Amino acid sequence: MLSPDVVVLRGAGPEYLALPDPYHIAVVTAAAPVKPDVSSEDAKREYEALMKYKIDTLLGFCATCGYKSLVLSAWGCGAFRNPPAIVARLFRDALEPPSVLGASFE
Questions:
Q1: How far apart are CA 75 and CA 37, in angstroms?
Q2: From which residue to which does the signal peptide run (predicted)?
């Protein structure tokens, strides 16, 4: 889901103080699998293929929209229990040149 005009009103930090100059960002929301089965090599391969597809689709969408800067979340590595090492490797592989659609991100 694309939310193309989200206003950032507060800064970072423990106080989250109001910003003197709020700014606008786009937010792309995409779901990760919930508690994926990676208990066997076959299950792990299926999971990695699904996540590679989702990551390529997400990055391709961002490139098509013309976005150059991305802030990536833990994408499922918290409550959804996706394996962080696999998710990180798949994102790294997708972002290293040549990246999806030949796009480059900051």
A1: 16
A2: none
Pairing type for strands 2-10 and 18-28 reads: antiparallel
Q: Count Cβ neighbours within 10 Å for each residue of 3-28 and write b for 16 or more, e otherwise.
A: eeeeeeeeeeeeeeeeeeeeeeeeee
| End-to-end Cα spacing for the chain | 22
Residue 80 has pLDDT above 70, yes or no: yes
Q: For residues 57 and 37, give the distance between their C-alpha atoms in angstroms, rounded to a whole number.
A: 22
Q: Spell out the domain ranges in the chain.
A: 30-102
CA 32 and chain centroid, separation: 9
Tens of pLDDT, residues 56-75 = 999 999 999 999 899 998 89
Q: What is the DSSP letter of 17?
A: P
